[in-house]
Amino acid sequence: MSCKSCTNSTDVVSKNTNIGNTIRTTNISNQHFATKKIEPVKNELVITNKTKDTSEKKCSICKQEGHNKRFCKNIATPVSAHKIDIKNDVKVIPPVKVEITSIDSTLTNVEFDICEKLYNKNNDLNTLYNNPNGIKYLMIRSFTKDDLVEISKKKDKKINIETLRINVFTTTDIEKIIQYTLSKKIPLSTDYANELSSELSKMCVESSSVHQDDFNSNMNKIIRSIDVSTYKKLQEEIEKKLVKQLKNYMTWQWYNQKCSDLIEDLILTQSNIIQTPRKIKNIDFFVKLDDTYIFPFDLKLTIFPAGFMKDNKIPNERKAIETYISNISNQHKILKWLYTEQNPRLFSNNYRHFVILLNLDNTDNSYKLKCNIGLIKESVNNFFTTIQKSDIIDIEYEYKKDKAKSGKYTTKCSYTLITC
Questions:
Q1: Which of 38, 87, 175, 253 has the greatest number of CB atoms lying within 10 Å of its CB?
Q2: What pTM, to 2 d.p., does this model score?
């Protein structure tokens, strides 16, 4: 059954009180909040043209000699920059003043290689986050090759992307990188977002039956079955079982991804959110706090886990669930459970922001709330507008679902719990 109050009720976890059915998080004291202060840099990015005949050229923009139009200070937009129709393509977002500067003006390839190894060969990204150059590396990692060419002192597009990353890492201070990234912040167009929201709402009347992408079990049953003894029978079984399962799985993966895209777009409208120009693993955006701290977050749009209810013997009825989640420590248990019960194939110990959706009248229909942008919008916007360091929660957990990844982990996360 659908929830009649979805369009009117928005219950958020963000601050410190319980008012009626509204659930809000306490301001957690983070005495062990691990962050990295960044020291001022003495150098500044200076772009120079190293082409030998530059001094002999006259700029077509300002008509002065000694540089060409690509490096003219009077040009409003770099020649290589993507041309954007501001009126039609983007929502205008006020620029944010960032006081963060580079931690070290003499970074070398060695520091870059350390960050690269931590990013590529470690499921525990907490070690990279704690590296003093980790955030700078991750921002650079999210740049496209065109971005790297534009911000780099090396303007040759023939240089490979790895060399460009190292060059920006060792020569460009982090303030320059942040300001450049903010200049590339382009939310979804209003028309596209509205159309996508309308299409997603059509799926809310359907049911979902596939929750994971492991088809090996069904495939093995067909392959090993003694009843599948002819090629014709094999094709019938594939069509009957695997094709239907694949279609259902892809449909709901698309639904989940597009719902997440819309929520991420809402978050990106906040001036303290730094977008990744290119999608990279385990990071959807960066959050700036107090002009000093930058946190990378992976957005997780999820429903209140049925497995958690079972493990904690919570009756599937509105009053019992409301009573349980009104306790802040119980809310934090949910977060810990979400890390502990990760799929081994997708395991990562990274910073996350959870948007947890819960239909109190029918928990099985909580997934339908994902496309209810009206319900989610105000809650998420309120959280990120007022986010503070105390809203970032320390999580300690032990992972046991995969022998190779088992062990004790520490991480950080934030969350918004929305109910109706």
A1: 38
A2: 0.71
